[in-house]
Design brief:
The complex is a heterodimer of chains A (about 450) and B (about 220).
Chain A lengths: L1 H21 L7 H17 L3 H12 L9 H17 L2 H14 L4 H13 L3 H14 L4 H13 L3 H13 L4 H14 L3 H14 L43 H9 L3 E8 L2 E10 L5 E4 L1 H4 L4 E6 L2 E11 L4 E6 L8 E3 L10 E6 L7 E13 L2 E6 L11 E4 L4 E9 L6 E5 H6 L9 E3 L7
Parallel strand pairs in A: 7-14
Antiparallel strand pairs in A: 1-2, 1-4, 2-3, 3-6, 4-5, 5-6, 8-9, 8-11, 9-10, 10-13, 11-12, 12-13
Chain B lengths: L2 H16 L3 H21 L3 H12 L9 H16 L3 H14 L4 H13 L3 H14 L4 H13 L3 H14 L3 H14 L3 H13 L18 E2 L1
The chains are: A alpha+beta (about 450), B mainly alpha (about 220).
Chain lengths: ~450, ~220
Amino acid sequence: MLLFRIALALRNLLMLTIVLATTLPAAAGQYETIDYYVQQMIIFAGANDAVSVQTFHEQLENQQRPAPGDALQARPFSQQGQEHLGRGDLKNALAAFRQAFIADPVDADIAHHLALTYLRLNRPREAERLAVYTLYLASARSPAWLTLGQAYGQTGDIPRAAGAFANAHRFARNQPQVLEQLRQLATTDSVDTVRISALQALQVIQPPTAAAPVSTLQSPDPPNSPPSSTNPNSPRGASHPQSPDQENPRQQIYRRSIPLTCLIVTSRNGKMTDLGSGLLVSPDGLVITNAHVIEKAGNLAVRCGDQESVARVRRQSRKPDLALLETSLKSSDSFVLNKTYHQGLIGLDVFVIGNPYGLEGTFSNGIISGLREIDGVRYIQISAPISPGNSGGPVILGDGTVIGIATMGAKVGQNLNFAIAAVEAVNAGFFDSARMKSQALKDKGP
Amino acid sequence: MNPACRILALILASWLAASPGFAQETSERNRFFVQQMIDLAAANNPQAVETMQRMLEQNPRPVASDPAAASTALQQGQAALQRDDLNAALSEFQKALQADPGNVDAFNHLGLLYRKLNQFTDADRALQQALALEPTRAVAWFQLAQVYGLQNDERRTIGALSNTYRYAQNSMRAEEILRYIAENEASDTLRNAALGTLRLHQLPVQSPIVPPLPNNPTLFR
């Protein structure tokens, strides 16, 4: 019996060896094949190469279609899903669209609604896969390209998002409508990278007119605000026609501070990793920001006013959460750090400029609410609103000096925000007295 | 592969298949290969799974003595199963297999029937026979996964689910079914196995585990 089992095992082994020798290399999976064509269409859309997009579009169209499903069974689930989606009941919408998709996986409408539901549930990877699959079923379906773009935008993949958005426009039956959708995304989407991607797509679609610089992320000028005489797209009023004499003090602070407040964009392996604010502290391009803004950076880009530069980290520390960047920016003016830190500060007006959620140059005000020492670092508690993206930006006193660097806020409560006291930057080795300026409040000594 | 070697390999395989005692041991050998497909799938070794699949596909298919009778019995068995007459269904499926011992549908339905009867060993055997005849039958792999899930055998459930996904005609549909199970299934084994399968294939899924709170949850940066 034992010999028989050994013989059997040997025979099995021999068979296995034979079959191993005749095995063909495994082919690419179904999804991978589809995804390849979709990715090619995205790449060429991003490069505005219509001919190549069309070539891969045709290749995708020529792929073998999946087997049909049970449309009758799927229909009621699909209707339920749309009702749930309309009410914003995403959990039940997901359950219904899933059932519909499982019943009839070749209905592009169902597949796209499932992708959209995943997107709204902040599940971009699932949304991406379902959107790609929808394009396999209907490769010229503009809404699916739009969903795919948003999914990539949510994951921070700006080039792919922009390419997908460009295809949403290319395949749209109503192109002006999609253009408007892209403008909406570029101005109102809560995800920085979705907004930036939509802007990039707009630049690809309509370079001379529709493409707005990133700075137009801001809301349009209010009706009373005067138009800029030199650059109608500039929200910053760099060449404000109104006389400074007519400006109130807050406007004067804004006008002087805005060219010295920086947008910091960090990237790694071609993907944007973070977005924050900074302040120009020397005429030859030294910029202070938070260390957490640049901690994931492979590359750093800084824009202050109309100038842009790559940046190098000269110094950074965890405590205090600060970084000093060297850039090639040149300016006749720079912020002055205010070393004052005592109870007399409480109640003073403060102004905050930064790029919350990528909304460049957002200006707000409040008061100094308190002084706090957290983990040995001195902070200034302020009531001025700050959000992610404000990090590293200046907190300015009425005299235009910087009293703090906006760093964090409490998620609970209201208007409980914190800036690292400027004195920490001066004392912790971030201050270069040859290149930077500091002062204390003249009338508020300890 | 060198064409001469390929021809030699096929001749050798034919000789082995024709050797005495081969037929008697086929069933045991097939079960071995199906189990290997499960283990290798759970270990995420697709090349080896494919090798085992090819081993099974080289089996000569049993000849049907009466295909028409088999077809009729299968239809009657399915009808009985629909009206939940499990004993009648069992009898019809057995008749179908006597008339056509290579009828994959009959084995598959028999597996489903045994699972409904909570006869898991019989269900396992019937489904393995279905897979020995047609190792790319995704629905049989899915049935088998459920049988293992009911027996709380998570590793084999993962292996069978992995093969369900591998051989699914529509992989996106299979992926969505796996996500549905991973997020909604009441049975811990099946739910965890679906989750494990999605991760094995690097497919996105929402983790059901609540992530730990950050050190200082009240502050954002």
